[in-house]
Amino acid sequence: MKDLIGKAILDYQTKNAPEDIITETSLTEADSMSVAYLFRGYEDMPGIEQKALQLAKGKILDVGCGAGSHSLYLQEKGLDITAIDISENAVEACRLRGLQNVTVQDVMTLSDTIQYDTILLLMNGTGLCGKLNRVAGFLQKLKSLLTPNGQILIDSSDIIYMFDEDEDGGKWIPSNMEYYGELVFQVRYKGQQEDAFDWVYIDYNTLQNAAHANGLQCELVKEGEHYDYLARLTHLKL
Fold it and tell me: Which UniProt keywords apply (predicted)?
């Protein structure tokens, strides 16, 4: 990976002529996003992100922290926050912003010798598992990092609205798609193109079923304005 999103984040932080990030998926045409959006303050965050930060407590792990905006807010509140991201550039930007406990780390290889009371996965946290058939392993890993009374706060969207309706009023989904929420993402920045990567949006019912199958309780905490939602996962009580 060329770490282009991380490069955009670091460019913005260091005032190195940042440009818009161009994203394109197997379902959508090219679209541009200002990297400034990743540096937004609490007041400018969507309601489901604000709610997640309100619920965060105890020892907190921010997975895929990006520019670190969520972690910085919690740090300023005096909470015990650890942030991780696979992007070296993003982590460097976080450090420059003043985030104290941030490291380059893939959550799937994170040691479970330390457990957390809150695990945050925001800005479509389900996307990190890539494909639906990887969600069991993904949830099992998160579960191993969770204290007995801990919580996983994760958001996603149901993108069924993006598909056309058929004659019967149902949605027409191409037969070659294993799950309609699975996309292939491509990112361009400053004339460079990132290697394509898998990304998945998981609808709430599917996430709930996967959570239960992996020993986790799933609660719908808040729904956003555009098919997005925040879920809270906890250990399933027998």
Answer: Methyltransferase, S-adenosyl-L-methionine, Transferase
Hey, where are the domains in the chain? Answer: 45-184+200-235
The fraction of the chain above a pLDDT of 70, given in percent, is 98
d(Cα 46, Cα 186) in Å, to the nearest integer? 24
Q: Tokens 């994203």, residue?
A: 23
Reported as a single tens digit per residue, the pLDDT across 63-72 is 999 999 999 9
* Mean pLDDT of the chain, nearest integer: 95
What contacts 67, CB < 8 A, 6 or more positions away? Answer: 9, 12, 13, 38, 39, 90, 93, 94, 97
Q: How far apart are CA 112 and CA 115, in angstroms?
A: 6
Q: CA–CA separation, 53 vs 71, rounded Å?
A: 9
What is the token pair recorded at 95?
A: 């450090």
Calculate the alpha carbon distances from 153 to 31, 60, 199 in Å: 28, 11, 18
